[in-house]
Amino acid sequence: MFPFYQTTEAYLECISGLRVRAVRMDGALELTSGEMGAHLKSRGIAIQKGECYIRTLEDGGQTLLADAGLPGSFCGDAVLTMQYVRNRAPTSTLPVGITPFKALHGKKPDLSHLRVWGCQCFVAIPSELRDKAGPQQFKVIFVGYEEHRIGWRVRDLQGKYHFSQDIIFNESSSGRLKCLQYFSFLH
After folding, report:
1. What is the pTM of this model?
2. How far apart are CA 60 and CA 77, in angstroms?
3. What percent of the chain stands above pLDDT 90?
4. How many CB atoms lie within 10 A of CB 54?
5. Which residue of 19, 130, 131, 138 has the lowest C-beta tally within 10 Å?
6. What are the backbone angles phi and psi of residue 143, rounded to the nearest 5°?
7. For the residues of 115-163, what is the DSSP string, one character each?
8. Per-residue confidence (pLDDT) for residue 176, from 0 to 100
C-alpha cells in the first residue's frame, strides 16, 4: 500500500505543482503507523478520517460484483474501477459541472472508453504470437482501467491479468456465464 501511495503522492504533486497537505483514510493502523505513518508525519501531512468515501467505494464495488455475478476475488478490481469512474463523475464537494478529474487536469475527462464492468470480452492474439491455424483471440473478463494508459485491464480464465487496446467487448454478456467454474477455487 505504501509504495502505491508514494507514487500517487508524487504524481499529484508533479501535475498540480502543489504539495499534498492532507490524506483522507479510514484510520487503519497499517496506514497511520509504520513506514507510511512516519512518511506522513515527516512531511507534515494531516490524516483525516474519511470512512464515508471508502464505504462508498466498497459498496459500489460490491454492486459491480453482484451485477456481473463474479466472486469476491474480483473485489479489488471492482473497487479500483469505482474509484476511476467516480473521479470522472460530478460530486457535491466541487462546483456544479466540475469533476475531480477536471479539477486536477483542467479539462473534461474523455468517457468514450468506459465499458460495462465484468463483461465478457476477447483479446486479440498478436499475429507474431499465434499459429496460422490457431485461435486469433482469447476469452477474458473486463476488470478495469489504468490511469495514463489507453486500453483496458482484463483477467483471463486462469486468473492472469492482461492490458490491451485490441479487445472486442460483449457488453450484453457478463463474465459470469462461463467463468465462475474457473474462479471458484479463488473464492
Report:
1. 0.78
2. 11
3. 56
4. 17
5. 131
6. -125, 0
7. --TTEEEEEEPPGGGS-TTS-SEEEEEEEE--TT-SSEEEEETTS-EEE
8. 63
User: Within 13 Å of residue 115, how many CA atoms lie on the same side as its CB?
Assistant: 26
d(CA 85, CA 78): 11
Residue type, 30: E
81 CB burial (10 A radius; 0-12, 13-18, 19+): buried
Question: Domain residue spans in the chain?
Answer: 19-49, 119-186
- Phi/psi for 129 (5° steps) reads -105, -5
Judge contact between 145 and 84, C-beta under 8 A.
yes
The amino acid sitting at 6 is Q
What does the pLDDT look like over 126-147, one tens digit per residue?
888 888 888 889 999 999 999 8
Q: What is the DSSP letter of 66?
A: H
The type of residue at 23 is V
- From CA 34, how far away is CA 65, in angstroms rounded? 32
- Tens of pLDDT, residue by residue over 60-73, are 999 999 999 999 99
How many CA atoms, within 13 angstroms, populate the side-chain half-sphere of residue 95?
A: 2
C-alpha of 126 from chain center: 25
* 93: phi then psi, degrees, rounded to nearest 5: -85, -10
